[in-house]
Amino acid sequence: xxxxxxxxxxxxxxxxxxxxxxxxxxxxxxxxxxxxxxxxxxxxxxxxxxxxxxxxxxxxxxxxxxxxxxxxxxxxxxxxxxxxxxxxxxxxxxxxxxxxxxxxxxxxxxxxxxxxxxxxxxxxxxxxxxxxxxxxxxxxxxxxxxxxxxxxxxxxxxxxxxxxxxxxxxxxxxxxxxxxxxxxxxxxxxxxxxxxxxxxxxxxxxxxxxxxxxxxxxxxxxxxxxxxxxxxxxxxxxxxxxxxxxxxxxxxxxxxxxxxxxxxxxxxxxxxxxxxxxxxxxxxxxxxxxxxxxxxxxxxxxxxxxxxxxxxxxxxxxxxxxxxxxxxxxxxxxxxxxxxxxxxxxxxx
Length: 349
Prior knowledge:
- The chain has twelve helices and 13 strands.
- It is α/β, with parallel strands linked by helices.
- The chain folds into two domains: 18-42 and 254-346, Aspartate Aminotransferase, domain 1; 58-252, Aspartate Aminotransferase, domain 2, CATH 3.40.640.
- The strands form three sheets. The protein has a seven-stranded mixed sheet with strand order 2-8-7-6-5-3-4, sandwiched between helices.
- β3, α5 and β4 form a beta-alpha-beta unit.
- α4 runs parallel beside α5 (109-117).
- The longest helix has 25 residues, at 253-277.
- It starts with 17 loop residues before the first helix and ends with a helix.
């Protein structure tokens, strides 16, 4: 999806829409195995939420910001809780001076749409080398990086991002880094650099913790930008139960260590399985999803065959003759069934 020609898309398609899949393939909603998102199949186990949390309005000072500060490794004054990183993606472009913004050709499409709606000019880049060239030649004022990228899984190392930020700062530009999938490899995060001028980091509770329904994320940025974002937000925009649950999850370092090890082992195995099953695609992955890229016809065929067998994966638009298929992690309960379906789907290849 592109908006460089000045035409914005009417609606974006996201993973997890089982109702749409049911209509498309004629398969009952309850039969589906949903691998179309990058959400962990293992969720942090939410304990009973105290009654007072349900009965009272949320206010700062409940310990959430302190827990987030400890978890992410930055000053609590450098972060702001928001109702999902999607909220920040929609709001922040309007708070930044208009200019040309470098956008990954493939990436979470809501970024592109939000910057377009805020009046910025979109300039595509395909990989780090193109991005560095755009910045060094001063063809863009701002840069959006999804790190690691969803769906390509590409990772840009910290030093390279800091060099890009330093070049942008000269002209008063901004670097926005979406780290929604960074929890598995926190050593690559730029959060410890906050609150540097011109740097915005987005983090999500939904992916790594398997709590997408909580709708909670964080923005790390200079205080001036956080104040602008906070002032335009409605009162109590993050629910009290969401704040309470997130505070407990962020402080559970023991569970986090187990989760990282589990995701690393399963994602590696999953990538190996898919590589063996679908030789026509080239696979790469993060800790929460594996993506195959190849000829458009091959990707479409895999998506259709799995859909007929009630396994939903994410099929991305064709760019330069190639498409991508993203596979989320099945988890132990669904792995045997998925493996059998994959075997059936590749039997005729």
